[in-house]
Amino acid sequence: MQHSDFLTRGVEEVIIKKDLEKKLRSGKKLRIKFGIDPTGSLLHLGHAVVLMKLKEFQDKGHTIIFLIGDFTARIGDPSGRNKLRSPLSEEEIKENMKSYLTQASTIIDTKKVELRYNSEWYEKMDIRELIKISSLTSVTQILHRAEFKERVKKGGEISMPEILYPLLQGYDSVVLKSDVEVGGTDQRFNLFMGRQLQERYNQPPQDVLMVPILEGLDGKEKMSKTYDNYIGLTEAPTEMYGKVMSVPDTLMWKYFTYLTRIPLKRIETLSRQIKAGTAHPRDVKMALAREIVSFFYNTKDAQEAELAFIQVFQEKKAPDEMPVIFVEKKNLSLLDLLMVAKLVASKSEARRIISQGGISIDGVVYRDSAQILPLSHQGIIIKRGKRHFVKIMAQ
Hints:
395 residues
């Protein structure tokens, strides 16, 4: 990435930009804080936007502080939520923490990261220090955050731990003496709290770099496991490639800009070519899918994923490799077949998908969940949606 793009590409806002530019020009090695609460076990391309910005800082020789909010996860970040979040148990937090570094290592060099857990200081903090921190801001200020105003408007409750959450996240910056904190735009309130508390503790306030929120495969909601519109960082190459190909055409320019290092001028040229009709959106999106899969895997895996995609979607053939399940019965209902194939989580989900025409067997769409289908030693191929294939064979 060109130096001129560093604070603009994949960046929504920098506070204070001229100060950060001065720090970067000084040659000083900065402490870059990135905090994440282990409230889930999966990282996706939405997380990749911020992780790729961290990689750029790391490549320039700055220290990345990967802060695991194992203590604050017991409260739950209220950002973007207009209802109370259920706190996680210690067991859930530990389980989620296990896979975070492995997934993040697909982008940043985790061996060079300063790994910290905020339980280091919060489990030792006494009530006097907590009261001191609490005295450095006001309830009025915290209640003015958008999520709380919306919740109060709807008659919802705000817990005391939620009020403390931004204070604790801000105090993390004091302990870590961070020069810069990186986060999504939905973290604005918490990021600014770090600046405020550092000043109150007579530290230089951290600069704040906010990255945009990436929409998911539906093109509407932010990428999230909750909305089932995500592309996981460790998904198989063929799955990752296929999901990128399902991104709406209008959204692929964001994916090009935020998730690849293709020069911006080249991206602008591709956009003009599509508008002029000299390039097909499908071909351009295939280039995007190749680039993303190559980044997380390698060129060979990307090429093989593309060939599999062409075989399944353009030539309308089943993939060469798919799960194979053997059953003893010679006849099963379509409903039972889906359950055996583990293509659905429940029979109610199976009935819904069947009724919507989302299931085909050997290329034929079936809409009757009770229909009995004969099985042979040659087997049948069940297809759910566009990408999921399972072969069922009689023993």
